[in-house]
Each structure stands twice: as structure tokens, then as C-alpha cells.
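Quick start: load a record and inspect it. Here is Enoyl-CoA hydratase:
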Amino acid sequence: MSDVLINTRGNVLEITLNRPDKGNALTPEMAQAITAALKSLSPETRVVLMNAKGGDFCTGRSAAMPAAGSRATALDLRTAISDPVLDFYEVLREIPIPFITAIRGRAAGVGCAIAALADVAIAAESATFQVPEMNHDIAPTLVLNALADRVSRATLARMVLTRDVIPATEAKTLGIVGITVADAGIDAEVERVVGQLEKNSVPTVRGIKAFLSMSPETSFASRKELAALINCVATAEKFR
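Running the structure step on this input writes:
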């Protein structure tokens, strides 16, 4: 069975991490399959939903380091280790429609980054978040890159340097996730959020996502023009 399940349900692209016996640790093949699906979205898709089988969302990345005793240059390591993950984060960041995640159990390393890159991360109250790489003397700059504009510098430094396991309710306060809900209610909450977005038109969801993506990097004057442009374009579709 595939380590990642990709299914279209109505106007929703549903991606399910499917390595429950390995904590849904991300493999290069999983990242490639997800990337291919996201780069070939149907024009009618309104939402991307990512969830996971088993007790954990994603506990990190499958080991990618060369075997002990191997010889490798910095360029070799970048090509094999750094760039694939950074490119994957870029793909998630550039999804042109709302990206929703459903988080149960542990979200560590890559899993924490995916949660933070979502437009709306919905976490069960028992979920936890961690950046544990420094426990293995690994500099987690790849996760830092994903989180840098999602949380404050103080939060970023605390997560990386202390490697604290952060409970869902605190993760919401820190801005890692958007919604926390009792474990028994997470499926209903996910369906509520996704169901609302399915009712919107493609121009509306794409326009809002474009504004969310671009506005942090623009001045007030530019945001004003961007807001007017997106609003008019999305609304005009109703009068064609």
C-alpha cells in the first residue's frame, strides 16, 4: 500500500500520510507524490486537506544522512538533504487555494513545519508540536525556514533551542495552529471548515489565498491596491 494516499473528494484534494507504523515520517517518495498532486490541481479544486493515518500526524523525516564513513561534499549534502525538503516546503507555501491540516498526536520536525505552513491547522487537544533536531546535533535550519514568518522570533528560538514538546493549546497561542478542538470532535471540525470552503467559488478562494500569501510582503499602499484588485476580479466572475 502507498505511503501517501491522494484522493479527490468533490472539490477537495485529500492527502493522507500513510506510514502509521513509522509515525508517518516523510520519505522522499512521499514528498514527490504530494508535490506532483499539488502541481496538477484541478481548476475546480477549492481546498487541499492533509491528514494522517494512525496516532501521529508526522514525526519528522526518514533518515536522509549518508551512512557513517561516507564521503560527501557540501554540495552533495545540499542536493541530497537540504534542497528536496526546502523545495517541498515551497510547494506547500505556494498552494493557490486554502491548505487545511488535521493534526493528531505528534507533529515534530517536518510535521511541525507542515502544520505551520497550513492556512488553517486544526489540532486535537492531545496533539503536540516539537522541533527536536538539536537532540541529534542537527541544525534545523530547514524547519526554521518554514516557520520563520509563521511565529515570532522568541517562539522560534524557544522551539529550536529548548526542543520543548508544546501542547496543542499552547501551539495555538504561539500561532503554530489556528484551531484546537477536543479529540472526539476533530473530524467534525475539519468537515465544518472544509465544507464551508467547498461552497465558495474558485475565484473567491484563490483570491483570498493570493492576498494571504502576498500581503505580508507589501506596503500599506500596495496592500490597498492588491485588496481592491482581488476583490474586483473575484466579484466580477459573478456577473459574467
